[in-house]
Amino acid sequence: MSYILKDLTQAECFAVLEHGRFGHLACCKDSQPYVVPIYFAYAKGVIYSFSMPGRKVDWMRANENVCLQIDQRGTGKGWTSVVVDGRFEEFPDTDLWRSERLYAWSLLQKNTDWWEIGALKPQAQPTGSASAHIFYGIFVRSVTGRTALPVD
């Protein structure tokens, strides 16, 4: 079987983002790349996601430049891939960021397969206690994509 490779338009790339929920996030620290799978929700130029503390968050705090790759399998053996270059921004558990955290949660919780431990609604923590929930956004700087279509 033969394939034709086609570049996606910006509108086609954003359509993949709007319908996507799972991708691979790449970050880099001290010239060392790191790629992890994430669930996400996209709205108004921002990719929203959630994490617990760990390497991914530490590295994104050290270097805000990140990349997200989303793919879709087509019928047969075709595929579509979109790559987003963006800027990481954390939404800390403070009054200033409360509405952004709740908005991220509201988008993510629409799909039952996002990380179940994170399905608990964020709420105020007792004095002296910090929330382990880390909500963040990837602000889209650029987006590109390609699709491989089978040719009969």
CATH topology: Pnp Oxidase, Chain A
- Helical run tally: 3
Tally of domains: 1
CATH class: Mainly Beta
How many strand units? 8
Helix content range: 10-25%
In the predicted model, the low-confidence regions spanning at least 5 consecutive residues are 125-129
Give the SSE string: EHEEEEHEEHE
Shape: globular
Distance between the termini: 7 Å
CATH architecture group name: Roll
InterPro entries: Pyridox_Oxase-rel, Split_barrel_FMN-bd
Pfam family, one: Pyridox_ox_2
Protein name: Pyridoxamine 5'-phosphate oxidase family protein
Task: Explain how this protein is built.
- It comes from Rhizobium ruizarguesonis.
- This protein has 152 residues and is of the alpha+beta class.
- It has a single domain, classed as Pnp Oxidase, Chain A, CATH 2.30.110.10.
- The protein is 19% helix and 47% strand.
- The protein has 3 helices and 8 strands, in the order E-H-E-E-E-E-H-E-E-H-E.
- Strands 1, 2, 3, 4, 5, 6, 7 and 8 form an 8-stranded antiparallel beta sheet that branches.
- Strand 4 and strand 5 form a beta hairpin.
- The protein is globular and about 55 Å long.
- About 3% of the residues have low confidence.
Task: List descriptors.
globular; 152 residues; alpha+beta; Pyridoxamine 5'-phosphate oxidase family protein; Pnp Oxidase, Chain A; 47% strand
Structure at a glance:
The chain has 152 residues and is of the alpha+beta class. The protein is 19% helix and 47% strand. The protein has a single domain, classed as Electron Transport, Fmn-binding Protein, Chain A (Pnp Oxidase, Chain A), CATH 2.30.110.10.
